[in-house]
Automatic annotation (TrEMBL):
This is S8 family serine peptidase. It holds the Pfam family Peptidase_S8. Residues 30-49 have a biased composition (Low complexity). The active site is at D325 (charge relay system), H361 (charge relay system), S531 (charge relay system). GO terms for molecular function: serine-type endopeptidase activity. It comes from the Bacteria. Residues 1-78 are annotated as: Disordered. GO terms for biological process: proteolysis. Residues 316-587 form the Peptidase S8/S53 domain. The lineage of its organism: Bacteria, Pseudomonadati, Pseudomonadota, Betaproteobacteria, Burkholderiales.
């Protein structure tokens, strides 16, 4: 056994004894209220320490009353609660095995955790079959434990692991919808009850022919905190702005439930005395959606990627797609073909309730990817692909995403759509992503909507990160979609969305502004977000796997990481540059369907038609200078390949430090 350079024994501590007895990181004498057990463990470094943890209520893990004063008979003291953690064996980096890095006896650790009176093991995520157990990658196939404990206990457990154990907060994940941006000068100041002005405004939302629009989200912005609400059955909502007058109102935002365009008015003329009526435009009133949804159409994003020019027999046959999101409403006429899924949130009680989508987000993504090719509604990229809907929202956490990816490994899914992200990097999740990749599962991930650095897991080097773009003349000027417009508009109307995250991790961009797709129960809505851009690339990836000649040949027909990397390579190579933004915002550019499936090569690609100033409506003055004063010749091969090589060179980030905000560093316990 090699000698420990820090002194003491080189033998790792016995985690099973330490954890079972509730010890902290060093040799400890622990008294556990209600258990009456006392034990002594040994320290990895040989240093002596003594610690006593007194836990009120035994296994509840609450701090003793004196830690926060005395509540007496008036109530209960506030103390730290148990939190949920992900616990997994850590795969050592290359070369550490020779330094005495020993593998962890994870089964023994699991038993020790289950026997501990102050740790509650709530779930275990592991291989579902022999097949998925053989899909062994980083982190092995021993599984992941989900346990509730105090932060102090988690810190002790992490320290006892000596680098062999991951102990992370089981962070909550978020769907990649852009949050509503407050108008400039709005602050978070809370008005006091000092008898100041109060603006009470009744907002009445109506649709085509004056029909009231129920369940529309309405927000009114003043100079302080905004007021928000949802319209009732009569299409009305009353909003109160404290400390405001009609002259200080800065914005009015309306997001309909379905079938209409959103609405945004800056500096609106709001009345205190009578209802303020907002008349929404129907989606079908827009020229590009004329006759919709009675007549089938392609979304503007699908046409921008030339899906409408694809031969009719290219439909994604034989490819399996998973959409890890909020479920998919199979009640929708365009989504009857989705017949498989897994409700990760309710796997113990109702694992088959994946087809109930209370948010509509997963249904919207599913429509872009695989809406049926019928006479009405929209057509997806791969209508004949086998789609699995994994329900992770509302409330999904990292441990549940790991479980959903385990489902994908077991079902031999080819492409996974992840329109989601977290606040922190998760090494446990990264190990599962690597394991999925080694099993031939390609993860396509939304870059994020904060307008800052690419979020995780899109920042992982083992996924394909997708940013969002928009296009002029594809939405009304008075819709909220217009607020996503930035200055990077090219001669053809393409622009990078304000909300879209950026950085060297962005592989490609895709349409993510005013994307019309399915929502429950059988309706349509136009939404924004990298969440909406990602399904475009997921659908394209499915078509590529199903129809590109490379994946019919022996070299890439076998599932594995090489197949995934080849898929990502083809998608990047199919892209052409769009917008005036640099490549940290668009990656290699907008992928092209005909190139990605192998029907055309880049030199034969036909450019889209430029947006003429006279046909760009009220948006034209904003970009007329770019179009007229700076005549740019469209070049489908205009991507600067030398610069792209720098972007994807592992040394690029170090050379350009400070130019792009970087993801937060890894924090194993995340507090």
């Amino acid at each position: 056994m090699p000698k420990n350079p820090n002194g003491g024994s080189s033998t790792p501590p016995d985690l099973t004894t330490s954890v079972t007895d509730g010890d902290t990181a060093g040799p400890a004498e622990t008294s556990m209220a209600g258990s009456g057990r006392r034990s002594t463990g040994s320290s990895a470094g040989g240093a002596e320490a003594r610690t006593t943890d007194t836990l009120a209520g035994g296994a509840d893990g609450e701090a003793a009353p004196h830690s926060n004063g005395h509540a007496g008979s008036a109530g209960r003291n506030v103390s730290a609660r148990k939190k949920q953690f992900v616990i997994a064996p850590r795969n050592p980096p290359e070369g550490l095995q020779t330094l005495g890095f020993q593998p962890l006896a994870f089964d023994a650790l699991e038993q020790a955790l289950r026997n501990s009176s102050d740790i509650d093991v709530v779930d275990k995520v592991g291989p579902r079959s022999v097949l998925s157990a053989l899909a062994n990658g980083s982190g092995s196939a021993q599984g992941v434990l989900v346990a509730r404990m105090t932060e102090q206990k988690a810190a002790a457990l992490h320290q006892q692991g000596q680098g062999r154990l991951l102990v992370e907060r089981d962070q909550h994940l978020a769907l990649m919808d852009p949050s509503l941006r407050l108008p400039a000068m709005v602050t978070g100041v809370t008005p006091t009850n000092g008898g100041g002005p109060v603006l009470n405004a009744v907002i009445s939302v109506v649709g085509k022919d004056g029909a009231p629009q129920a369940n529309a989200e309405v927000s009114l912005f003043g100079s302080m905190l905004p007021a928000s609400g949802v319209t009732d059955a009569n299409g009305q909502v009353t909003l109160s702005l404290f400390g405001e007058t009609p002259d200080t109102v800065r914005g009015l935002y309306v997001k309909p439930k379905a079938d209409h365009w959103s609405f945004y008015q800056s500096d609106p003329d709001i009345s205190n005395d009578q209802p303020n009526v907002v008349a929404l435009r129907a989606l079908s009133d827009w020229p590009a959606l004329s006759g919709f949804p009675r007549q089938r159409c392609y979304g503007w994003g699908q046409k921008a990627m030339r899906l409408d020019q694809l031969p009719g027999n290219y439909r994604g046959q034989g490819v399996k797609i998973a959409i890890i999101d909020s479920g998919a409403a199979t009640s929708h006429d365009n989504l009857h073909g989705i017949r498989a899924g897994f409700d990760v949130l309710n796997k113990q009680t109702s694992p088959d309730s994946w087809d109930h989508d209370t948010l509509g987000h997963g249904t919207h993504c599913a429509g872009v990817i695989a809406a049926a090719d019928i006479a009405s509604g929209i057509r997806g990229f791969a209508p004949d692909a086998e789609v699995h809907a994994c329900k992770l929202f509302p409330g999904g956490q990292v441990s549940q995403l790991i479980d959903a990816l385990e489902y994908c490994i077991d079902k031999q899914i080819d492409v996974v759509n992840l329109s989601l992200g977290g606040a922190e990097v998760s090494e446990a999740l990264e190990q599962q992503i690597i394991r999925a990749k080694r099993a031939g599962v390609a993860c396509v991930v939304a870059a994020g909507n904060s307008g800052g650095a690419v979020q995780y897991p899109a920042s992982s080097p083992n996924v394909l990160a997708v940013a969002a773009i928009g296009k002029l003349d594809e939405f009304p000027a008075d819709s909220y979609h217009a607020q996503t417009l930035d200055s990077n508009v090219d001669a053809y109307g393409y622009f990078t969305a304000k909300f879209s995250c950026f950085g060297p991790q962005v592989a490609v961009c895709a349409p993510g502004v005013a994307i019309t797709s399915c929502v429950p129960p059988n309706n349509f809505a136009a939404w924004d977000g990298t969440s909406m851009a990602t399904p475009h690339v997921t659908g394209l990836a499915a078509l590529t796997l199903a129809h590109h000649p490379d994946f019919q040949a022996a070299q890439y027909s076998t599932r594995g990481p090489e197949r995934v990397e080849r898929l990502f390579q083809i998608i990047r190579a199919s892209a052409h540059r769009v917008s005036q933004a640099d490549q940290s915002h668009i990656g290699f550019g907008l992928p092209d369907v005909l190139v990605a499936v192998g029907l055309q090569t880049q030199p034969g690609q036909q450019p889209p038609q430029p947006v003429a100033p006279q046909s760009a409506g009220v948006m034209a003055p904003m970009v007329a200078g770019l179009i007229v004063g700076n005549p740019v010749v469209y070049d489908p091969l205009g991507l600067d390949m030398a610069r792209a090589q720098m972007l994807y060179n592992p040394h690029w980030q170090a050379l350009h430090v400070g130019q792009f905000p970087l993801p937060k560093p890894y924090n194993p316990i995340m507090w």
